[in-house]
Amino acid sequence: MEKEDKDILLKIRSSRACIRDGYRMFTENFKRIFRYTWPLAVGFAVLSAVASALPVLVSPGLMLAGLLIETVAVIALLWLANKVLHKRGFLEKTPKVKFKHWMRHLGMVLLVAIFCFVIVTILTLFTSLPSVIIMAANWESQMGVINGDPVGMPSYVMWLSIGAFLIAGFLRAYVWLTILCPRYLTKASIAMQEKEREEFNQKTNTKNNEEKAIVYRP
Q: How far apart are CA 130 and CA 163, in angstroms?
């Protein structure tokens, strides 16, 4: 059964099939993925909340620092989640794909990547909407204070903001993790294509050498 599952994953696909099968793989196995990755999602939520809170609750001048923390958190989340899913056996080990192989299939890689990032952007807008509203309200309050208006936000709003940032960050973690399955199937497809190319070249070279041996046989 495991061999059949591995054969289903490790096969040649088009870019469209990598996207379709990748998202289907993620949704059908979400419970398993969640069980393996929820600690990483919690860690990402904390870092994401810090990144959001710095420019909103501390100072607008910390926007760049917040973006940097968010970027590092996303990269760390994807790298660690990929490692965990391979270690737990959810993602099978694929043949090594060299840099020149990625470049040979650059069109396929870019198409899958662009589509995934469009999906991430759309889902991020939905999952972050409550925190964006709170951020806007906090900014308006701070601008009012700067202009001499009294503070218009109750004290509990700070904790409400932190809670919203944490929840939004946790949801956003799984939005980003949707990238992993399409990327995995893309890598597997490229690996299998390159394997077939290498086997074909070896057979061709062997056949040519045999023909030469026959022609030049004394």
A: 11
User: Which are the contacts of 153, defined by CB distance < 8 A and separation ≥ 6?
Assistant: 137, 138, 141
- This model's pTM is above 0.85: no
Distance of alpha carbon 68 from alpha carbon 56, whole angstroms: 15
Q: How many residues does the chain have?
A: 218
Cα–Cα distance for residue pair 186/94, rounded to 1 Å: 11
Spell 180-193 as b/e; 16+ CB within 10 A means b.
Answer: bbbbbbbbbbbbbb
Of 48, 87, 55, 81, which is closest to residue 167 (Cα–Cα)? Answer: 48
Residue 202 · residue 26 · CB < 8 Å: no
Taken in order 73, 76, 79, 84, the sign of the CA dihedral is negative
How does residue 204 score in pLDDT terms, banded at 50, 70 and 90?
low
